[in-house]
């Protein structure tokens, strides 16, 4: 990218060069920006397309998502897993969970998505025993990412994918002088994954950084 190219011009260009997602996702994205605090937490169109492609490429039929928010990414996965597939998504905020349920129903994917309210760390053991997941997407409270990652990694088969969002943490992980709790924990997890011979992994610099991890 040319350094002097205005961000708005590049954004407009990118928005014209992307495959369409399910029609209801445009409405969901707009409504989230209008009615929900911190709408930037939503995956959005570009990351949504990437999530769908990764699920399709991996042949995923069972996806676990930690952190539903308003349901955008869960719907992207539901579109990819197809008939007979299942997306299990965990959300601790009851208000957000209700918004997501409405969005799932409107999109016609309610049967493909199981939304479970509660604490992910408490719920994951039983969920991971119930399903043989092909892909896990971690996008919840950042201080628990390492815990979620370890729990998922232990349960997944070789060849399964783990995706972790916000792993560049607004660029703070690259600045060693920044030592707040979330930055330090994110940096530690990044170092752990990068040095693990049991995975093939890289950070995709989309939005706030997305780990793409394949268990060997």
**Distance between the ends:** 34 Å
Give Rg in angstroms. 17 Å
Compute the number of helices: 8
* Unreliable stretches covering 5 or more consecutive residues: none
Spatial order of the strands forming the largest sheet: 3-2-1-4-5-7-6
The CATH topology annotation of the domain at 23-31 and 42-167 reads as: Rossmann fold
The tally of strands reads: 7
CATH level 1 name of the domain at 23-31 and 42-167: Alpha Beta
Structural class: alpha/beta
User: Could you report the average pLDDT, rounded to the nearest whole number?
Assistant: 92
Work out the helicity level. Answer: 40-55%
CATH superfamily of the domain at 23-31 and 42-167: Vaccinia Virus protein VP39
The general outline is globular
What's the helix-strand series?
A: HHHEHEHEHEHEHEE
Biggest sheet features = 7 strands, mixed
Strand proportion: 15-25%
Characterize the quaternary organization of these chains. single chain
CATH architecture classification of the domain at 23-31 and 42-167: 3-Layer(aba) Sandwich
